[in-house]
Amino acid sequence: MKSNKGFTLIELVATITILSIIMMIAVPNVVSVLNKNKAQTYVNDARKLVTLAKYLFESDATIDRPTGGSCVVILLSALDRTELNKGPENGRYDLEQSFVVIKYNGTTYEYRVQLYENYTKNGRNVQKGIKLRSYADLVDLTSKNSFVTDKGFIELGSGTHRFDQLDLCTSVKERS
Does pLDDT of 5 surpass 90? Predict the structure, then answer.
């Protein structure tokens, strides 16, 4: 009597079909989770940037305090960046275009942050991150992932008109 040890062609095709269906369901879910984690990393890094700027602002008496409609801008280049070395896309955060704006509203200081990363994707330079947002927005748990964008960043100029696009301030003092 002949003993066949192995699988028939139908069994192999059925197994491959089932595995293919499982992969079609699983792969998009894994990609979605990875993208959400990257978005969350941008938000967490923006919160770290505000925390670092707040610490510097509160501990350094040489920084002028904003009054009225004036603001203080603290650039990422002015801070200890050991925890903000690389972004989620393995690029570098822009040291001159990532910053925290501190404004006095009459009773407390308001903090706004812009943080973006420069990286290369498919041979072209890309920017991605958080455009100017209030710190209160970043700690709101409901809509964090929608803050990550690849457009609409405030581009700081150079020279005397460097901060002209910061409409929320009547005057700006820079800490770099």
Answer: no
Residue found by looking up tokens 């350094």 in the block: 60
The span from the CA of 60 to the CA of 52, in Å, is 12
At 158 the pLDDT is 63
Q: At residue 80, what is the residue type?
A: D
Angstrom distance (rounded) from CA 134 to CA 102:
10
CA 154 to chain centre: 14
- Please name the residues in contact with 175: beta carbons below 8 A apart, sequence gap of 6 or more: 56, 63, 72, 73, 74, 75, 78
Residue 82, φ and ψ in degrees, nearest 5:
-60, -30
Residue ranges per domain, the chain?
A: 41-175
Query: Strand, coil or helix: what is 41?
Result: helix
Q: What is the DSSP letter of 89?
A: T
Say yes or no to pLDDT of 124 above 70: yes
Q: Within 13 Å, how many C-alpha atoms sit on residue 121's CB side?
A: 11
Q: Across the strands, what pairs with 102?
A: 72, 111
Q: Is the dihedral of CA 139, 145, 149, 152 positive or negative?
A: negative
- DSSP-derived letter for residue 110 is E
